[in-house]
Amino acid sequence: MAVKICPKCGGKVAESRDTCFHCGYVFGKMETCPECGESVIKTAEGYCPVCGHNFGDDAARQEAIRVEELQRIAEEEKRREVARERERQCELERKKRAAEESRRNMVIEGGVVKKYMGAQYEVIFPEGIKEIGDHAFYNNRSITKVVLPDGLRKIGEGAFCACENLRQMNIPDTVTDIEKWGVYGCIRLSSITIPAATTRIQPLAFSSTGLDSIEVAAGNRVYSDKGNCLIDVKTKTLVIGTNYSQIPNDGSVIIIGEGAFACMKISRISIPRSVKTLEAGAFNGCKSLKEFNYLGTTAEWERIAKGDKWCTNMGTWQVICMDGIARVDTTVKL
Question: Model's pTM, two decimal places?
């Protein structure tokens, strides 16, 4: 039978007993003494019966260590906050300098940016700008980010056309109009959000871009973003497609607009039976497009109106219909 030694009287007691039948001592739980390493039951006074180590000292030491660690964490967080504030101030100063340089590089007349002559990576527009004029930033290869100002109303024709390195662009909530070719050819622009106030987006405004996603802000009654597409709700025209669009098969699209998918890297597309028109250049330059499906018959496909060069340089020359394969005819015009 396993026994244990009473730390008070030294008598032997069965391991299963909670009290010593010799002297009445109440046994506590076994603990490992940090001094001698033995598993012991500390004495009533809190000492190790083997080496005399005071267990009470450990509690005080642990509490001191805990308090010290909390102080260290608080001091470290304070240093981090100081560093973050320093970074915020540096970023504000950097943006201020960038905005001043942007302003110097712009020709502004009556709240309209007529021309930009700089080579900045980031362009920050000054307040009071109402319109980005036609071709103001045309073919600028330096810009990677533009910060458009609140109060902006219009992005003019070809305003950012062929800005091939443009990656980030905000459209303020005040913008109502985006003209033809406004952001055309910005091949590294991967996402965009259309504000609720935007009511007019011209064909080809975002054609030949690198869009992977497009969103329409809540409250916009003109456009929807069903299927990762920009759709004119009233005319049921798909205005802008993306590399990952899935055209809704619910009757909400009857026209694939001019240049809607031009030069996109889309690899597969399914055209709903509701579609009656493919406008000029709708899928022009879609070299990655290898699977082109039509969710209707070959006869219905033939009746669809097709615009000039609607599929020039497309990656496939056949349309997979529900009852067979139709060949693409690039010579048909509206």
Answer: 0.72
